[in-house]
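Before relying on records like the one below, remember that each one covers exactly one chain. Contacts with other chains, cofactors or solvent are not represented anywhere in the record.
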Amino acid sequence: MIDTLRTVQTPEGIDLHLPVAGLVPRTLAWLIDALIRLLIYSGLATVLLVFGDTGAGLYLLAAFVIEWFYPVLFEVLRGGQTPGKRSYGIKVLHDDGTPIGWSASLIRNLLRVVDFLPIMYGFGLASMMLNRDFKRLGDLAAGTVVVYRETPLPVPKLSVSHPSRPPYALSLEEQQAIIAFAERSASLTPERAEELAQLTGPLVTNQPRAIETLCSYAKWLSGDQHPEPAKQPADDNSRESGEAA
């Protein structure tokens, strides 16, 4: 993906970096949406056209509504994503990075007829190629931009099941280092993991399993401070009942 970042500053003075989607993913997403609409039209034609002129009128009305409001409904109600956009991981936002609203979505989609001129989205393609944010005329009028959707990073799982409290208070940097080690330990060789674990010094002194010890500390520091209760041995009555059985 080419680095085409759009920087937006929030009222709080925080810079948001939005990766702008280019011509290729937007075209492919449009093709998927066009295919979905074509399938819908085919299904409607099969059902409605058997009713003669009345069915033809209903078909034309339904086709008009679907053609113009299909993208609007999805963009507003589904986080700026039509099915085609979702399949390619892109979405529509306002220029300031906020979710798209009804008015902006209506404007950008109603102006598709202008983007289509003179043939096959000629004006729209020219506008996208001349604009650093790949905006077609509808985007320029509505104040919208198409960007890549952020993919949330998976939350690493710690390998140990029993948390353990560190023997003494740790600084924030030390806590972060231990948690980072526990999250990465599964991807390290045992020798390298052991070498890194031994660098913590007093934390693993006299501990036969330094790696497991640090991972248990990390789980406690991550907020899981409730070890699993140990299994209680069966009492004498239940044991006698079992023997009798």
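The first strand starts at residue 5 and ends at 9.
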